[in-house]
Amino acid sequence: MLLMDGVKYEEWIPPDEEALEEVVKEHHEDIFGEGSLYFDIKSKISGSSVASIPDGYAIRFEPDQWWVVEVELSTHDVYGHIQPQIGKFLAAVGKLETRAELKKKLYGEIVADEQVKADLQGRKGGEIFKLLSDLLDQPPKVAVIIDSEAPALADLSLSVPPEVVEFRTFRRAGAGAPAHIHQFEPLVTPSRVQCPPAPFDTIVVPAQEEGFLETFLGEDRWYAVRVSERKIPSIKYIAVYRVAPVSAITHWAPVRSVEPWPEERGKFVVNFAEKAREIAPIKAAIGGKVKKLQSPAYAVLKRLLKAENLDDVFG
Fold it and tell me: What is the pLDDT of residues 108-123, one digit of tens each?
């Protein structure tokens, strides 16, 4: 149990690996560093007679690093389950044909998200596939993220010793909403981040027309938004990108609060301080980098209000 300012927090035990994986996805930037990307594509990596499916892959640039990620429960047998799994991963990614297959899969994930693609091009420049290919040509690291201490992990006999993150969660006792505290040591601490992210004060959310009218305009709020908790203090405004056929950012509002969304762990409701304000539609530029918005993205309001197209907002 944790006790903070007289409030009790009881340890939450994940019911299965999938529950812990959701938390890891939500907090991947806290674990692997600001600007890192996490892929839970659950796709088999194969090579010769070796085949296995890791729980995910994490990559980051500046400096270039990538991890094969295994999410585990401490109840699993370290020697009978975890060690063979990691051994298969390392044997597979050590093969050229496996690396080539993995490059194609991760590249497909990146270019499918216009905001991620634009952010990466803005930070690194150059051709994304080459950047990714050069990164994956380096030896991988292995990250094991586990719900509680497993001392035997330190004794594993592997060609690449795993980096272990003990990720524990404590929930406020008796709370209606899932107020919680996470306890873990990140693999990349803020002091080691060489290139700090650009400042932002606005979250831009994509919306279908029905949700835009009923919730964004009708209820003066937006839910359920997946956002890293470390970014919440920076969110002062919200803007909406209305998907096709509008395909444009058309409204913004000041934010009163960002609170946990009680119906789904890891998501939040953004409450407006006042009614949303309409602006001239901000659409994709012809031949521009950002074609559309498919997931929440971050911007600076002053820049957004002066923008003529989506590249001006996110480029």
Answer: 888 887 767 777 766 6
Q: Are 311 and 114 in contact (CB under 8 A)?
A: no
Cα gap 254→73, rounded to integer Å: 41
Residue with tokens 């892929």: 39
CB atoms within 10 A of CB 177: 11
Residues 19-32 as b or e (16 or more Cβ within 10 Å = b): bbbbbbbbbbbbbb
Tell me, what DSSP letter sits at residue 161? P
How many other C-beta atoms are found inside a 10 Å radius of the C-beta of residue 178? 15
pTM of this structure: 0.60
Residues 88 and 51: beta-carbon distance below 8 Å: yes
CA 110, CA 42: separation in Å to the nearest integer?
15
Report residues of the chain scoring pLDDT below 70: 1, 4-5, 42-52, 79, 115, 121-126, 154-155, 157, 175-178, 189-198
